[in-house]
Every structure is written in C-alpha cells, then in structure tokens.
Amino acid sequence: MLDALISSKTKRAILKQFFSNLDERYYIRQLAVILNTSVGTVHRELARFEKNGILESKSLGNLRFFYINRKNPLFTELKQIIFKTEGIKGRMEMELNRIKGIKTAFIYGSFAKGEEKGNSDIDLFLVGNINEDELIQKISGLESELNREINHTIYTKEEFKKEIENKNSFILEVLKEPKIFLVGKQDEL
Predict the structure, then answer these.
(1) How far from 90 is each of 93, 100, 153, 165, 169, CA to CA, in Å?
(2) Other C-beta atoms lying within 10 Å of the C-beta of residue 169
(3) Partner residues linked to 108 by β-bridges
(4) Within 10 Å of residue 18's Cβ, how many Cβ atoms?
(5) Which domains are seen in the chain, by residue range?
(6) Who's near 37: CB < 8 A, 6+ residues apart?
(7) Is residue 19 a contact partner of residue 12, using CB atoms and an 8 Å limit?
(8) Is residue 160 helix, strand or coil?
(9) How do 102-108 and 122-128 pair as beta strands?
(10) Which residues pair with 152 in a beta bridge?
C-alpha cells in the first residue's frame, strides 16, 4: 500500500528502517549494506529526507550519522503510516493472516501504548486453535526481519473464556491495555 504513495523502493526501505528502529543512527555505507542498495542511491535519498526535515544528521569523525527528526510535524503520522503498512504491524498482520486457526491476534504492551524504544520487544497475544510449530516458524522469520524479539502468548478460545471467568489477572490487565489488532477485532474477544 505504501508503494502507491512512495514509488521508490529505496525510499520505502529507508523509511521502514528508520521508523522500525527509532533510536538508531546509521551512516551511509552501513545503511547501504543493510538495505542491499548502492551507497550513491542511499546517499541521495538520505540527503533528500534530511532536506525535507524527516531525517537529521551529525558527523562523528569522518562518518555522518543519520537519524529520525522527532520534531518534524509529520513524525507521528509518518510513523503510523510506516507501522501500518511496511513496518511491524503491516508485516505481522500479513504473516499471521497466513496461519490457519488464529481467531484473534493483537500487539499489547509498549508498542500498543506508543512507548516503544529501539530495543523494545513485541508482545503478541493470540487466541485460536493454532499450529504452534507454524507460528514459531513465522515469528522467527519476523524477529529476524524486524530485528525485534517477539514474545507470544497463546490460548484456545475455550482456555481464554475460562481464564476470563476465573479472573486471571494477566488476561484482565491485557484486556484493559491498548491493543493493536492484527487478526480479528476487539468485539470478537
């Protein structure tokens, strides 16, 4: 979907890298290696993003490090767009929807609250009759791609209902917190 707004694959990859790792700083050659793109192309796009105020840079020795400009008036909106399309939500949604048996899946914790840091893990809650081996394989791939640890909790629909009836403090707390739904909806819980 983001490709409809930003036609350049390199621009999308750069935005995804920065907005998925908000606290990171990258120098040009490092980013070119991560994105498997030429140094010249990365340099040109970084310069454009810096000129438009999306990125800032700082020189340390003979290296120039680029990082997100959190003061940019579009920072929050760009973060949301990247997160929902190319970033963590978009990728997780795509992979989880390929697994049969998931009735509900959502992110909770620091990501759902918008309080994530560069090294924050992702808390994933799932309800359904899920093939755990298939899920672990997908999660492992996502962890590598997103460079984040993903901690998952699985309940069958019956277990989930029973835990609510038993007033399980963990489940009740998770249900009160903000959530980002990847599969299903709030009213399906």
Answers:
(1) 5, 18, 20, 33, 30
(2) 9
(3) 123
(4) 24
(5) 2-76 (1.10.10.10), 88-188 (3.30.460.10)
(6) 10, 13
(7) no
(8) helix
(9) antiparallel
(10) 124
Long-range contacts at 158-161 (CB < 8 A, ≥ 24 apart):
160/127, 160/189
- pLDDT tens per residue, range 12-71: 889 988 988 888 999 999 999 999 999 999 999 999 999 999 999 999 999 999 999 999
Handedness of CA 4, 114, 123, 173 (dihedral sign): negative
The DSSP line for 79-138 is: HHHHHHTTSHHHHHHHHHTTSTTEEEEEEETHHHHT---TT--EEEEEEE---HHHHHHH
Instruction: Read off the amino acid at residue 116.
Output: E
- Identify the three-state secondary structure at position 68: strand
The answer to whether the CB of 18 falls within 8 A of the CB of 75 is: no
